[in-house]
Amino acid sequence: MPKSLPCLAIAGALIAGTLMAAAGGSHGVEAAGLPAFAVLVAAAFAVQWIAFIPAWFLQTERFFDLTGSITFLVVTAGALLIRGDFDPRSLVIAAAIAVWALRLGPFLFLRVRRDGEDRRFRQIKPNFPVFLMTWTLQGLWVSLTAAPALAALLATDSTAPDWTLAAGAALWLAGFVIEVAADEQKRRFRAIPENRQRYIASGLWAWSRHPNYFGEILLWIGIAVIAAPVLQGWQLATLVSPVFVWLLLTRISGVRMLEARANRRWRDDPGYQEYLRRTNTLLLRPPRRT
Questions:
Q1: Are 221 and 242 within 8 A, CB to CB?
Q2: Judging by beta carbons within 10 Å of its beta carbon (0-12, 13-18, 19+), is residue 288 exposed, middle or buried?
Q3: pTM for the whole thing?
């Protein structure tokens, strides 16, 4: 990795966060004379940098994912309290994010604790700028992913419950159930000692090679649908959230990294090659006949 890349990535994350803060705060309430949305975006980055300090000195990534989930809870609760208007749409948005974060954070934390490490960080932890970049990018992840939710929670106007609330909640619920079920199926599969070096091709994993990521994308689409009716002007730019989640999980980390690792491990396995041919990468669908 070029030495200048971490600094450029940090700068890029801060620029993207600033632009999103400006867009999301354009028609929202204020806090201490500043757009509350911008204040919460700054808080999202600040939490990561504070957590980075002990992580660097202890050379650990064990609470990285947990910190991300806690940050979602902090900014969501902050937005709800700053506005102080607990209308049905706001409560559904806040509850959806809280349930998701309270499930995902401990799940990932316990997985890293069980495995002893997160292999993604083996080469990252000893390098100060790269490790800092990773935490900074997590601040951007929180800011962009939660953007439509925060903009809706901080909007100056509210709207009565309508079909978008029902449709968005249904999408969120479907995505959440898929993600939880897929994670639990994989956890149980890997709990069997002889399966630890094997790939899972049963349950939802027979319908998609990454059903948990499909569920994750779907639930954030649901939150965007719920939030959309109360957004105005530049706040509509926050609806990039599900697109960002899709790009992150399929093009930057997630699918891309896992597929490359799996191909290195099982490229000579005829069974795995057959699994690739009959199973979609992301979207859920019955296995193809071969």
A1: yes
A2: exposed
A3: 0.94
Helix, strand, coil percentages, rounded to 5, for the chain: 75, 0, 25
Q: If you average pLDDT over residues 155-176, what whole number do you get? A: 94
Residue 209, Cβ neighbours under 10 Å: how many?
A: 21
Residue 251 has pLDDT above 80, yes or no: yes
- According to DSSP, the residues that pair with 28 across neighbouring strands are 155
Domain ranges of the chain: 5-278
Residue 31 bridge partners (DSSP): 34
Residues recorded for the chain: 290
Specify whether the CB–CB gap between 78 and 155 falls below 8 A.
Answer: no
- Amino acid, single-letter form, for residue 101: A
Residue 30: which H helix or E strand, with range?
Answer: strand 30-31
Tell me the one-letter amino acid at 203.
G
In tens, the pLDDT along 18-27 reads 999 999 999 8
**Which residues does 70 contact at the CB level (< 8 Å), separation at least 6?**
47, 101, 105
Cβ(103)–Cβ(72) below 8 Å:
no
Tokens of 217: 């994308």
Residue written as tokens 């993604």? 120
Euclidean distance between CA atoms 205 and 200, whole angstroms? 6
The H or E element spanning position 35 is: strand 34-35
**What is the C-alpha to C-alpha distance for residues 36 and 125, in angstroms, rounded to an integer?**
33
Q: Assign residue 116 a region (left: φ > 0; alpha: ψ between -120 and 50; beta: otherwise).
A: left
Among 42-46, 110-114, 211-215, name the one with the lowest average pLDDT: 110-114
